[in-house]
Design a protein that fits this description.
single chain, 5-stranded antiparallel sheet, 5 strands
């Protein structure tokens, strides 16, 4: 749970917004570089699904504007 709380504070690789029971993670801005940096964070979030939060699979958004369809948004549920 501490790991997800650290992610909620944001970093150079991602931004996070949260409300009661959930959070949205995305690249820090709309640049290609930010999208590339976010991929590591996105993969870690997905890999650690179930460790204090649940990834809402239907809300993993992939960019159709880039080759390989990189992830540009992930929504998670965080239990109280």
């Amino acid at each position: 749970m501490n790991w997800i709380k650290e992610l909620l504070s944001g970093s150079d690789d991602h931004r996070a917004t949260s409300d009661l029971g959930g959070a949205i993670f995305a690249p820090v801005d709309g640049s290609d570089d930010a999208l590339v940096r976010f991929q590591k964070v996105a993969k870690q979030i997905i890999a650690n699904d179930g460790l204090g939060y649940t990834v809402v699979n239907r809300l993993i958004h992939r960019s159709s504007d880039h080759a390989g369809s990189p992830i540009d948004r992930i929504v998670v549920n965080i239990p109280h």
